[in-house]
Amino acid sequence: xxxxxxxxxxxxxxxxxxxxxxxxxxxxxxxxxxxxxxxxxxxxxxxxxxxxxxxxxxxxxxxxxxxxxxxxxxxxxxxxxxxxxxxxxxxxxxxxxxxxxxxxxxxxxxxxxxxxxxxxxxxxxxxxxxxxxxxxxxxxxxxxxxxxxxxxxxx
Length: 155
Description:
Blueprint (H helix, E strand, L loop, with lengths): L1 H32 L6 H23 L9 H5 L2 H29 L16 H4 L1 H18 L9
Helix pairs in contact: 1-2, 2-6, 4-6
C-alpha cells in the first residue's frame, strides 16, 4: 500500500536526521580536541535535532501514540462523559496541529532573507519542518480515526 512507502520514507528521514546529528557532534568534538574546531558542526547538529524532534512527533501520531494524555479523569468518568471528553481532547489536538501548520507556514516564509551563520542556508529550511510535521500529524491522526474499529462490548 502507499502508506508502506510513506512509512519507509518517514523512517528514513528520521534515521538520516539522527545520523547527521551524531556525525556532526562527533566531528565537532574531535575537531575541538585537535584545536581546529569545525564551526558548522554545531549548526548541523541543531538543525538535525529540530528536524528529528518534529519528525519524531509526527511519527508518534503515525503509530497512534500521538500525544500525552492524563487519563485519570477519563477513567473515572461514565461512558457518555468519557466520549464527550475524548471529542474535546481530540478537537484541542487538531487545533494545535492546525496552528502548527498555519503558524509554521507564516514563520517559515521563504521570502525572509535570513540565512544561517555557519552554513549560509536559508533559515526557512530549518523552520519548514513545523508546518510539514503538523500537516503529516493531522493526516496520520485522521487516518487512525478512519481505521478505528468498534471495541467489543459496544464501547
